[in-house]
């Protein structure tokens, strides 16, 4: 059910959202260095963002490396990217470092994203949704969405956030 006042409010959101996409994966990083593009999830994010009229300013594949992730996020923030989308590294394995790396950067956390993502995942997968630590937050007026690396998880996440990106950016800039 959509609120009439919410729809009216959303008419005044930015339409020029500049986006960055970061895929964290040791294997996809290795593939990319060998000239192989195996990053389905990153491409899916880009396609959804473009379909919604957003601009992709930067896209990169990096290994599961804390320092590289921090450097990449900070560089994108300095380049005035409005929203950063990460895929990969949100699970429970020792190499899954996305959440631990990014959460300390957040000025504000967007709890609803992770909560809704896990609810939708539970509806689709059952209790396996417990494995996800998808999250979102605002770092220096840049929104960061961290989602799992599987294409199905990316689809679920993008279904949740793609229509709200401009609205979230509007509020993160204030």
Describe it.
The chain has helices at residues 4-10, 26-33, 40-51, 66-78, 98-102, 111-125, 151-161, 165-172, and strands spanning 18-24, 55-62, 83-87, 108-109, 135-139, 142-147. α3 runs parallel beside α7. It has one domain: MoaB/Mog-like domain (Molybdenum Cofactor Biosythetic Enzyme, Chain A), CATH 3.40.980. The protein has 174 residues and is of the alpha/beta class. β5 (135-139) and β6 form a beta hairpin. The relative contact order is 0.18. A 6-stranded mixed β-sheet has the order 2-1-3-6-5-4, with helices on both faces. The chain is built from 8 helices and 6 strands, in the order αβααβαβαβαββαα.
Helices and strands in order, then pairings?
Elements: H1 4-10, E1 18-24, H2 26-33, H3 40-51, E2 55-62, H4 66-78, E3 83-87, H5 98-102, E4 108-109, H6 111-125, E5 135-139, E6 142-147, H7 151-161, H8 165-172
Parallel strand pairs: 1-2, 1-3, 3-6
Antiparallel strand pairs: 4-5, 5-6
Helix pairs in contact: 3-7, 6-7
> Biggest β-sheet, characterized?
6 strands, mixed
Please mark out the parts with pLDDT under 50 across 5 or more consecutive residues, or reply none. Answer: none
- What is the overall number of helices? 8
Which architecture name does CATH use?
3-Layer(aba) Sandwich
Strand content: 15-25%
The CATH superfamily is known as: MoaB/Mog-like domain
Please count the beta strands (DSSP E, at least 2 residues each).
Answer: 6
Helix content range of the residues, please? 40-55%
Mean of residue pLDDT?
93
Q: Terminal Cα separation, in Å?
A: 27 Å
Specify the CATH class.
Answer: Alpha Beta
Structural class: alpha/beta
H and E string:
HEHHEHEHEHEEHH
């Amino acid at each position: 059910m959509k609120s009439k006042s919410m729809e009216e409010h959303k008419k005044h959101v930015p339409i020029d959202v500049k986006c960055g996409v970061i895929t964290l994966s040791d294997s996809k990083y290795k593939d990319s260095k060998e000239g192989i593009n195996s990053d389905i999830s990153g491409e899916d994010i880009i396609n959804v963002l473009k379909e919604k009229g957003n601009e992709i300013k930067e896209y990169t594949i990096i290994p599961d490396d804390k320092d590289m992730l921090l450097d990449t996020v900070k560089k994108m923030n300095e380049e005035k990217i409005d929203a950063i989308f990460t895929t990969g590294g949100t699970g429970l394995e020792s190499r899954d470092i996305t959440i631990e790396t990014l959460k300390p950067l957040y000025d504000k956390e967007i709890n609803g994203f992770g909560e809704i993502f896990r609810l939708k995942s539970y509806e689709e997968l059952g209790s396996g949704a417990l494995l996800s630590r998808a999250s979102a937050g605002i770092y220096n007026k840049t929104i960061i969405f961290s989602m799992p690396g599987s294409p199905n998880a990316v689809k679920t996440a993008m279904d949740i956030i793609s229509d709200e990106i401009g609205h979230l950016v509007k509020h993160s800039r204030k």
